[in-house]
Request: fold
Amino acid sequence: MTATLADIIQHMTALAPPALAESWDNCGLQVGDPRWPVRRILVALDPLPAVIQEASEKEIDLLITHHPLLMQPLKQIDFNSPAGKIIAACAVRQMAIFAAHTNLDSVKGGLNDHLANLLNLQKRKVLRPAAAPARAKLVIFVPADAEAAIRQALFSAGAGLIGDYSHCAFRLEGQGSFRPGAASRPAIGQIGRTETVGEVRLETIVPQHRLPAAVAAAEAAHPYETMAWDAYPLLTDPADSGLGRVGDLPEEISLKALADRVKMILGAAFVRVVGVPQARVATVALCTGSGGSLLDAFFGSGAQAFITGDVRYHDARSVEDAGKGLIDVGHFASERIVVNHLVTQLRNRLADRHPDIAIMAATQEREPFYLV
Reply:
């Protein structure tokens, strides 16, 4: 069976949970219809015109990018604007665009962990842990013959996700009792008479923000006039996701040697360095993309050097004043590694269920800056 865009979105949601995205970000489906078939996927850093052209030439059905096409709400879609031209081209070709941005940065095993792996960092920790999403345990009492329909309604509303597993629930058979009042319209039993029926206690996990929708979906599928249910807030585990990572190098080296190593690993045309070249570095903090907002976390991490991109002048001065090291690899070089990483992860995930889907890395992206 041919996979649909909805199928691939489900896999992408597991790889980069939307709940981990920063509040200002716009991750997820940018353009497309979840019902569209997907046979060929292209992965890129940016939805650039050159990438869209490459995707068109390769007859791509789904373009997955790290940076979203749409960051601000559109007041109009002008087909002569940069974003409008891309939307128009995608609509004509039935090519979808999906973005995994700060959620992919933050998730365990995501982009920051990938860079930490390339540097072989040991004893790593999250530089700025993400707040664990609030969850609740939803308990609903249902007649056995309605259980399947209510399960499906709950799962469709976003319930039942635990880690990389979906459709998670627990059931326990028991006896329910009730006496319909004078104004009731019971689905089972008679007014004024106590009834005892076989029921199932159905439990599942629901993100706090999806709880109202899950309860409403269950009520719509429930045969009783009044559905009996409870919701219990759950304690959260310590966060193992978040922006940035910090860890120990295999051996202590100079700041200059670390900069040379990072430049080679990332294939960067150039890097900018702050600090004494001969300073010794044993512990490194890093953040792919623009990591200036994590500067205080770096100062408190015990790391001697910070690897990131898009560093501002005054932030560089702050690092210099603190006697630390900074390696600015640029935004593109720090995040272009997402392409092959995501291609590999998708191929592994889809190998069993959708082995016929071709997954490719974009080849038409270039560093926008150059030296003169």
The first helix runs from residue 5 to 15. Residues 314 and 320 are 10 Å apart (CA to CA).
